[in-house]
Design brief:
- The protein has 395 residues and is an alpha/beta fold.
- It has 2 domains: 137 residues, Aspartate Aminotransferase, domain 1 (Alpha-Beta Complex); 225 residues, Type I PLP-dependent aspartate aminotransferase-like (Major domain) (Aspartate Aminotransferase, domain 2, 3-Layer(aba) Sandwich), CATH 3.40.640.
- The protein contains 14 helices and 12 strands.
- The strands form 3 sheets. The chain has a 7-stranded mixed β-sheet with strand order 2-8-7-6-5-3-4, sandwiched between helices.
- The chain is globular.
Length: 395
């Protein structure tokens, strides 16, 4: 008999993917330039030329056996060294290459991190609004998922709800900052308070509670700000990263787990990740991509278009009477719908070829997500369509 759990998941297809497929099909009917698709968070700017140049150099000049052979099971040493060096210089950390484990994107990083610090029967907490894929990520490790409801006034952590739900069974927290879908970056005050609570609860329960920080949007920050680095606030932290957004390389599936040097059993976690790979098949990200990214890991694509797009959308939302927390980064914005049901709101928007994602799947019913990683001219035209939609349906 086939696995019934995974068979049952077939009926729970990602709403985001369904909407993206709808937008593509609709585009074939009326021209995709006439479909205002805010569904999918796919970077809309090219990778830096330096990355392309490095790939060409490697392909032309590198020994093919070295270029395309298996990497060590714990990753390419040059990649690990450059990642550790970059994190230390940027965030004042003390990583060495042995604290870095290369992964197939942030999803692979989270898969390893969760398994490294939990066992079946433990509890892992996530904070709404959350990336919808966290639910299968967590549940498929065999742990219990605990969801903390959102603070919809700020989309920082709802500490009252958090403290009422943390228990002796809590093994880890999975956070996402800057956040998909809200676009909010956790403040220093939020991370300090979270650290204080985790230290106190770890002492009370007699075991360390681990913090897993998912941060693929770390470089997409607005208003010339800097996103606080979560691992610098709490010792028992694992940082999960992907170059999908900063370098616009989502299809290359390259990221890492960075184990805080002060973490409990820090020297064992990366070797453990190598063993975890044997069971989940995430081992050895592409050799050539590790080598290329090692040489450009301090660069980013030109990310400025995302802030430009955000300001256009936010200003129009305010003009039209929406309630919305202004994003501090990412390429998402998360307004409150103009009616109680965000599903109904998004269905009505589809009639105007505006493709939005209801907030229900992110743990925040009544809100909707717009992924504005699209051409700025199209964003401007979409705002005209949004105004038409709002005036006809809600005025």
């Amino acid at each position: 008999m086939i696995n019934q759990e995974f068979k049952a998941m077939l009926s729970g297809k990602s709403v985001i993917r369904e909407l993206s497929e709808y937008a593509t099909a609709r585009g074939k009917e009326i021209g995709y330039e006439n479909v205002f698709d805010f569904s999918l968070g796919n970077p809309s700017v090219p990778a830096p030329q330096e990355f392309t140049d490095e790939m060409i150099h490697l392909l032309k000049d590198k020994d093919p056996m070295e270029l395309h052979g298996y990497t060590p099971s714990l990753g390419n040493p040059d990649y690990k060294r450059e990642i550790a060096k970059s994190l230390n210089e940027r965030f004042g950390m003390n990583y060495v290459p042995e604290h870095i484990f290369p992964t197939t994107g942030a999803a692979g990083a989270i898969a390893h991190a969760l398994r490294a610090v939990t066992k079946p029967g433990d509890e892992v907490m996530i904070f709404a609004p959350y990336f919808s894929e966290y639910i299968p990520y967590v549940k498929q490790t065999g742990v219990e998922l605990v969801i903390v409801p959102a603070d919809t006034e700020s989309f920082q952590i709802n500490f009252e709800a958090f403290e009422s739900r943390i228990t002796e069974k809590t093994a880890a927290l999975l956070i996402n900052t800057p956040n998909n879908p809200s676009g909010v970056a956790y403040s220093e005050d939020t991370l300090k308070k979270l650290s204080d609570i985790l230290k106190a609860k770890s002492k009370e329960y007699g075991h360390n509670i681990f913090l897993i920080s998912d941060e693929p949007y770390r470089e997409i920050i607005f208003d010339n700000a800097k996103a606080p680095y979560a691992s610098s606030f709490y010792p028992h932290s694992l940082s999960c990263y992907s170059f999908s957004k900063a370098l616009s390389l989502p299809g290359e599936r390259i990221g890492y787990v960075a184990v805080n040097p002060e973490c409990e059993d820090a020297e064992f976690i990366v070797p453990m990740c190598g063993q975890i790979s044997r069971g989940i098949g995430h081992n050895c990200p592409p050799s050539i991509i590790q080598q290329a990214v090692a040489r450009v890991c301090n660069l980013t694509s030109d990310l400025s278009v995302y802030e430009t797009n955000m300001n256009i959308i936010y200003d129009k939302l305010m003009e039209l009477g929406f309630t919305c927390v202004r994003p501090g980064g990412t390429f998402y914005i998360f307004p409150k719908a103009l009616e109680e049901s965000s599903i109904e709101f998004c269905n009505k928007a589809k009639k105007y070829d505006l493709i939005f994602v209801p907030g229900d799947g992110f743990g925040a019913p009544g809100f909707f997500r717009m992924a504005y990683c699209i051409d700025t001219d199209k964003v401007k035209r979409a705002m005209e369509r949004l105004e038409d939609f709002v005036k006809k349906e809600y005025r």
